[in-house]
Write a structure and sequence with these properties.
The protein is mostly helical. The protein has helices spanning 2-5, 13-17, 22-47, 61-64, 73-77, 80-97, 103-126, 130-146, 150-164, 166-169, 171-181, 196-219, and strands at 183-184, 194-195.
């Protein structure tokens, strides 16, 4: 899918699967996940028994009947129609992950779920949301246990427990993290925060590269 869409060269497929390039994978995995979920939603429309489909199968009548120019998007999302639709889609997704649509669909939706977990953690860092980050660590720890990564599973559990106990053990530190110490903001965009360790690594690498270029010019 990625090669035919022109977003990944065929020679880079092995590196993408093995996650050799972090920045490339961080962009491509969400794209692939989004494409798979679109296919899953289209399958849901075709099997949804409570709606009459329009000429376009991807847009059921139940949604069109709820759209009104007098209503905002937030108000539409709070209607019973949309809530029922979302609940049915969650049930359909759960059946897919249980293998009712086959092993391939099960694997794809498990993959989508892992990418969504990454989105939650990434959002927590970008928004400087410590509580959301602590919550997101649970799914990561479960994955380490499932894949028998003993060191990660052991110390991630300890790390999450320490963060959960911060209000009792280090209340001042919890306030400092919530005030902006949890991540670093380099621009005026509030959603562009980066992890401290990643920012430090990028800064050191950039400084080292500039020094090497300066020395090369001096030698020439």
């Amino acid at each position: 899918m990625l090669v035919e869409a022109g977003v990944l060269a065929s020679g880079s497929m092995k590196g993408f699967i093995e996650c050799r390039n972090f920045n490339r994978c961080k962009r491509l995995h969400p794209i692939l996940s989004h494409a798979l979920e679109i296919l899953h939603v289209r399958k849901f429309w075709t099997t949804y028994e409570q709606v009459e489909h329009t000429d376009e199968p991807s847009m059921p009548t139940i949604i069109l009947s709820s759209v009104d120019e007098r209503h905002s998007v937030d108000s539409l999302l709070e209607t019973s129609t949309f809530k029922k639709l979302f609940q049915d889609y969650d049930s359909f997704t759960q059946r897919t992950r249980e293998g009712h649509l086959g092993d391939t669909a099960k694997f794809c939706m498990d993959y989508v779920a892992r990418v969504n977990q990454f989105h939650i953690r990434n959002r927590a860092v970008r928004e400087d949301d410590v509580d959301l980050f602590i919550y997101a660590l649970t799914s990561v720890t479960d994955l380490f246990f499932a894949t028998n990564r003993q060191n990660y599973a052991r110390w991630m559990s300890k790390y999450q427990l320490d963060l959960m106990n911060l209000p009792a053990t280090h209340p001042v530190l919890k306030e400092m993290l919530a005030d902006g110490l949890f991540s670093i903001l380099r621009t005026d965009n509030q959603f562009s925060r980066l992890p401290v360790d990643l920012t430090l690594e990028q800064t050191v690498n950039a400084d080292a590269a500039s020094r090497m270029i300066h020395r090369s010019h001096q030698q020439l």
